[in-house]
Structure formats: C-alpha cells, structure tokens
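Hi all, a correction to my earlier message: I attached the wrong file for RING-type E3 ubiquitin transferase. Here's the right sequence:
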Amino acid sequence: MDLTPLRCLNNSISRLIHLVTCRISTAMPAEKDYINLVSSLKLVKPVLDDIANRKAPLDEALSKECDELDTAVNEAREFLEKWSPKTSKILCVLQSKPLVLKIQNSSVKLCGFCESSPNAQICIQESRNLKLGQLSEHIEEILKSQEDWEKNPCADHLTEIIESFSLRSSQELLNERIALEKEKQKAESSNIKSELDRISQILELISHIREFVEKNKSVNNVQIPSYFRCPLSLELMWDPVIVASGQTYERAHIQKWLDQGLVRCPKTNYELAHKNLIPNYTVKALIVNWCNENKVELSNNSDKVEDVFEARKVPEEGSVQSSPEHSYVHSRSESASSAVSSIDYASAAPEIGVSRMSVNYPFTPPNGGSPSLSGKFYNSSKTISRMLSFPSYSLHNELTSTPHVEKLVNGLRSLSTEVQTASAGELRFLAKYNIENRVIIGQCGAIAPLISLLHSDNELIQEHSVTALLNLSIDENIKSRIAEEGALEPLIHVLKTGNTGAKENAAAALFSISLLDDYRVKIGRSGAVNGLVDLLKTGTVRGKKDAATALFNLSIFHENKARIVQAGAVKYLVGLMEPCSEMVDKAVALLANLSTIVEGCSAIAREGGIPLLVEIVDMGSQRGKENAASILLQMCINNSKYCRSVLQEGAVPPLVALSQSGTPRAKEKAQQLLSHFRNQRESAVARGRS
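and the right structure:
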C-alpha cells in the first residue's frame, strides 16, 4: 500500500518536535503552546504506526486527513523558523493561535480513524485537554474592550499584558513598537486591511501601556515634566534632537527607529522629508537646568538601546547606485547627508556647537514667561530667534521672509567685506534648520552670488558661503541648481585653499552633489579627488570623515576607483585601519570598493594592509569584518601571492568563525575565501603528484 502520506507526516512531525526541543526560546511568548503541542504530537506518532500496521490501503478520507495535518505542522514549523526576538511579541501570539489550533483539531480528526486503538484514544483525550491559545484569547478580549476605553483604560488588563510579555521597561516597549511599525509597513504595502486594522489596535494598546508604565516614574522623588521625556521612550532626554517634522526625540531612540527603515514621525505619523537629526540645544539647556535645580544626575541612557538593526551593504562591483542609502551619514548639524549607509555613522561623531558665529543672549520663553535658565545665558546665533519652549518642545528657526532674504542677497554683492560676511553668515544659519527658509533663499537668487564668493580672499566669507551652499543642498531641487550653476570648480578651489572649516564643508558639499548620478562622474573628472585625498591626509577627524564620505560615494562609479587609488588614498586609508583610529569601519568600507580593481588590491598589499585586514576579520565590528573579508577575497582571487600572505597572517581561524557567526554577506565572503584556500591547496597537491 502507498504509505507516502504517512511517511511525510511522520517526517514533518519529527522536524517540528526537533525544532521546538532544540531551538524554541523562553523569550518567545507562545512557547508554552508549542511545548504542549509537541507533547501531543509525540502521541500521534504511535497512532501513525498503528495505521501503517493495518497493512490495508489508505482510504481517501484518511489520506486527506494526513495531508491536512502535514500542512498544518509545516505551517507551524515555518512560522517558528521565521520568528526572532526582533518580532512583535503580541502579534506573534495572535498569529500563532490559529496554527496551533489547526494542528490540535487535525490531530483529533486523524486519530478518530483509529478509535479502536488505545494509542488513538490517549491522543484524542490529551489533545482535547490541551488549553492552547489562552494568552491569545485574553489579548483578543482586551483589544475588543479597548473600543470602550477612553482616557482611563483598565489597569488590570494593562498589567496582565505587561506581565505576560515582559513589557516593563521603556526599551522593551520601544522594541515592541518598532516591530509593530515594521509589520504595519508590510501590511500597508500588501494592502491587507484586516491585518492593518489589527496592528493599529495593538499599537493603540502599546500606547496605553507606555503611559501606564511611565505615569508615575520619577527621579529622586521628583516628577519628570512630560515635555522633557522622549515621545518614543517616555524617558528623560539626554541628547534631544529634532527630526524633519519638527518633533524632538532622544537621539538614540529616534536613530534606532530610523535605522529600522521607519520613515514616519512616531508622534505625528507624517512621512519625514529627510533623516537629518538636528541637536535641540534649547531643550537640552532646559533639561540641564531642571536637573541642576532638582539635584538630578543627567546621564546618557543611549547605551541601553540595543543595536537591533542590520547594516546596509557596500554596493557590489558594477552596482552603481545613487541613493543616499549607500552613502555615509554625517552626524553633525551642518551636513549634506541624511541617510544611513553601509557604514553606521549614527553615533560616530559628537555634534558641533550651534555655530562658529554665535553670540550670548538671555533666553526668554515665549508668551512672556520667566527665563527658564535662571538668568544664565544661552549660546545661539544672531539668526536663531526665540526658541519654542512649551508646549511643542521643538526647535525652529523663525521663518524668514522673501524681502529680508532679498536684502541679504543684495548684501552678497556689496563691495563691503563686512556686509558680505554678515549676509553670507545669516544665510548660512537661515538655511541650517528650516526647510521653508531654504526654498525662499533658493527662489531669491542666492545661489549664484554664494558660488561667486567661494573665490573670495576673505576666509570667513568663503567659509560662510560654502556652508550656506551645503545647508541649501539638503533640498534636492536646490542641490541640482547648485550643481547646474557651476559650483564644482569653486568648491574644489575652497577644498584646496580654504580654512579648516571651509575645506570640511566643501568636501561635504561635493558629497551632497555626488548623490546626483551625472555629477558623480563629473566630480571624478573635475580634479576633486586629489583635494579630497589631501583632506584625508591632513584634515581633522571631522575633515577626514567628510573626505572619506565623498570618496566613498564617488567610488561607487567604477571609473573613479582608479583615480582614487592613483591619488594615493590607499596609504591613508590603511593608516586609518589601525585599531586606535576612529575611522576603521569607514576606511575598510571605502577600501572594499577600491579592491574591486587590480590597482586597488596592489596598493592595499603594498601599503601593508593585509595584516590589518586579518586583524579586523578577527576582532573588528560586524561591518568591519564583512568588508575586510570582501577585500581579502578580492585580493586572493586576483593574486596567489596575496593568498599566501593572508594565510601566513593566520586568517583561517577568524574566517571559520566569521563563516558561522557573521552577517549573511560576511558568511558568504568567508566561505568563498575558505573554499578558495582549499582549491589552491588541492591544486598544489595535484601539481606535486604530477
């Protein structure tokens, strides 16, 4: 008789039992259901043996029940295999319930075909006694009752969810919300309305839980004002920053949000126009003052935010990509870049002060309130007017007017150095934070005179002008106009002749323009590479980061790789791979692009890069290991001499470890490299025998 359906079912049950026994985690909220389910399925196996021992053909109905149970078991197994601690706990329980109930019902129906068998009777009894999906039933009841909640949700319900899912801390709640927001994005893209409604309900529940958990939280028995709490975590902010929507968040929490690919403001739900994070110096100063008055120690809580996101990858050879997602992130306030790249710059550098052109004046809250800094002075620029304090807690430059900008543009054309300096400086700061101001400045014809001032002999005018253009280039339309109006040659002039700040911002501006596909080629052919490599050699840490950022983006275009190598960049990049350097990952990422050409591999070997690359594979960050393995693979494939050098540096043990525990791309590169070593060895043995 054909026992194929029985064998398939037996195999599927064994796989699920093995998976649950070996891999299920106590962190999985539905783990008890699956453990109980496995106990029940173990009783099904003797029933299947009884059916096989009948030595009679399987009838159609029995064969169908075997297939249905087999399908249900495999669906549950696939669900478990896809589960990870990063997924939503609440949604996991709700999605898991129909899977386990389906197996329970199918098991009972299948055993009904062998009612005379003692094994079948035991299995039916045990299956019916299982109370599966109880947690899910409680959640569904709570979600249903949530429709009647207004401002005072049931505390017992909230406590039950908190205890069931260990959602006691701000970080656990933040992780759950991020996981749900990602699922919501998937549901929106798939247009699954029922799933979208369910996720929205759970998000509303999480909002109630957050308020319930944080409602009575205090420091030193002092209640933390709501406007000093991060809207994402509800914790006291240590490093408040502003996003494109104007809302203020704790840097570590909103960065974690953005790094998960979430593009909407958590508070307003509006899509963010960009990912720039602007320091909110006003709120920070108010928090510091409040902490001082209440004897509260202000400490950085960002180290509590776990790194749960995967790095984006360096583009492979031949994949020319223009998206900012393949670029570095500047983590300073005046920056052209707002996207996360293959290298995580999110916490790479501290924010600089509000400006180099600042004055001190007393901070006065709006609406005639008393000074919030107790008579102390607040550091700000002339153009940053009174900061918004209550109740929206966001930092905005006051919106400028077209007549005012027109006067400043006329000032750029003045014969007076003082007037030019003041006008360029004010335009610089007007364009720094405010999106609307950038549009007005662009419409008033400021771009051409700003570009002309890049050739000014006055260093301050030059610096203000290049930084104004950098800030304006955040707007995609204005960026194109800056490029079209001939900014490349003047920017390269500043890169070679300006003061330190001007050179750094010229490099950042070139990077911004290089995000335009056509200009990545033009910049490479314009002579900018030599200036950027010089900055990589002689610049400050920030200047080197700016130079590496621009060179990385230029290196995506194949033609530019040889230019970068010929300009001598590899020597300085190898130097930046030293363990004491702040730029190891950034240097390795750029070298990964350069290693795709023969000249790049030769330069890396010549400059002594192989030992450092092996060390990074062994002890570097996940991104560093991934890119270092990619470089070593390119070198070994191109030249057997490099292969011997890599082996002599003891690369095999760290590569074996990386092939088992690295990122998916790192595992792939490590496995390819180890396979290449084996092939080389086998070829050598074969040649020796011949």
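Sorry for the mix-up. The radius of gyration is 31 Å.
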